Amino acid sequence: MYKVLIVDDEVFVRKGLIRILSECSPQFEICGEAENGEQALTLIEQLNPELVIADIRMPVLDGLGLIKKVKTELVQEPIFIILSGYADFSYAQQAFRYNVSDYILKPVDEQELTVALGKIAHMLNKKQLLSITREKPLVETVIESLLQTQPDDQVMGRIAYALELPLTSSYTYLIAEMQDQLPAGEVDYLPALKNSLLRYFRQEAQTLLLHVRTNNQYGMILPGQWVDEPHPSPWGGYRTMLDTLERELGTSIALFVGRKVSHLNQIVASGASAEQCLQYRFAAGFEGIYMADELLELPLYYFDIDEGLHSKLIYEVEANDNKGYSSTVDAIFTMFQERHFAPGAVTNTIRRSMIAIINIIRQLEGDENELQWMTELLNWPLKYRNLKQLKQVFQQFIAEAAEYIAEKRGGKSEGNIEKIKKYIDGHYRENIYLKGIAADFDMNPVYLGQLFRKTYGVYFNEYLLTLRIEEAKRLLRQTKKRMYEIAELVGFQNADYFATQFEKLENMTPTDYRNMMIGQ
């Protein structure tokens, strides 16, 4: 990665630039900040950044003065990008006389800066690549450059010469992901991984094209000439390799294997296909080996689980039904695999279930932070990198939440349902509704609705309507009240709606019913 120094007297501008670089330019890392040119001059000498992004107008020493002093007083030769809130061509002319890389007006356009950074990264990559020697190859720079662009023939020739590899041969980029259930970077697997791979390929004297990626991943360009013998299945050789690595490194590993290419300068395409394989980490049947040739034709699923399955899980958690929620979790995770859920869709499903459960806990005046597995599940993408690991932590959270909810509610759910029915029987003439009753009894409305149906074999709304219509029939038989009066007396706010619901249930209008009763 290349070091960047940010120089601007406005702190919000500095923070905005830091955000853009962290999100859009992974080849650059911020090494420091300065609010004027004098501070920047000291930091450039200390930190030796490859790139300086500086405002043109600053107190003490402005951007152009800083560039002049760097060029005349320091041995460092960073690249400069100048920012200015002044659309003054004379400033631009003066800046370019100092050979600045780019001149960008404030407010900074994110896309414009990203394009400029891309050009600078390419220039720095090429500069380093052309300095490669056999004695000291810059392996990380080589790999990252090959994965981002196709270098020209001059650079490719130097790379192949330095690494003692043929230009025209089969190459594959693969990603080895350490699935150790630890935060990324907590264990440095690079030395052990390097030694294990060199022994496995029997290439101890050869340079290994291995580099460190984010999220506990290591990338490797694998020359085809290192593969000893063909295997009956496309992934057979990788299975042996995976078993060896897991045994020697003492942790679970997944391999994401890109498509094979026929020239070293095409490794960018193999790398892109390996990246796509990461999206299939939750698909079924691949047992730790994800190959682009098998996966990339399969459609990914980007949506949520079925509403019915989600509601069923929440109901079973509220009911503290261990067997029920365990079975539903199994069904959800089977769906993740069989439908090839993308990681984002899995995340959304987990988050949706957590939010629903947190809302229940808060309704009961509980605190979700009292759950030991709460934080663990919130941060699962940082530690749990396969479906088995995620399922284990999700099950732990669900079980703990179910027990917590039952404890907060005091185990009164089944007893409360009888009280709720009696409440409905006594208040059906009023403007009552499921959500309001659930709040009065400290229950989730979805859970209450499903519990009511499970207990009495009828939905809440159907039961309430039946009570109201039966009372309306009594009033139609025994009184001469008008329709709108009867509608209001039995809990309907609108006489037309009352008539519609009456006819739906009795297959006749209220007037027809009254006339029929008078005739009898």
TrEMBL record:
The modification 4-aspartylphosphate is found at D55. Residues 418-516 form the HTH araC/xylS-type domain. It comes from the Bacteria. This is Two-component system response regulator YesN. Its main location: cytoplasm. Signal peptide: none annotated. Keywords: Cytoplasm, DNA-binding, Phosphoprotein, Transcription, Transcription regulation, Two-component regulatory system. It is found in: Cytoplasm. Residues 3-121 form the Response regulatory domain.
